[in-house]
Amino acid sequence: MADKKVDxxxxxxxxxxxPDTYLWIRPEGDLATIGVSPLLEESSGTFVxxxxxxxxxxxxxxxxxxxxxxxxxxxxxxxxxSGKIVAVNQEVLHNPRLLNTDxxxxxxxVQVQLTNMQDEFDHLVAGVDNIRQWFEGEWKKMQQKGWIxx
Length: 150
Fold this sequence. Notes:
Layout: E1 16-18, E2 23-28, E3 31-36, H1 38-44, E4 47-52, E5 58-59, E6 64-70, E7 74-78, E8 83-88, H2 90-94, H3 98-101, E9 110-114, H4 117-120, H5 128-145
Antiparallel strand pairs: 1-2, 2-3, 3-9, 4-6, 5-8, 6-7, 8-9
């Protein structure tokens, strides 16, 4: 039986991406909204549980701010940028499937008051061409490893 090929999902190019966490970041002034990219969503399967532990905490990039559980993945959520978590999306905590069905809309995770964006910007993937190239490369790697959820 041949392996089923999964079509590459649409990725938004009007946000930034952290190549280490596969989270997206939408900065607006000194605030940023953070969510799960299609790379994490497709490689994890359906999300079933989500916990955010760090509301009102100021965290450095890479620090754990919660836990996520899906059909094919259980792990920690790590900050893609440094900042203070000022809002947690209660709707997605109660309905983690929003991470699968509306990852750029109702499925956002947290909002952060940025503390070091100027120094951390170079670590993020930005710009239409850069995002598409990065995403396509990561998608191919995940397919080769068998990580894409079907």
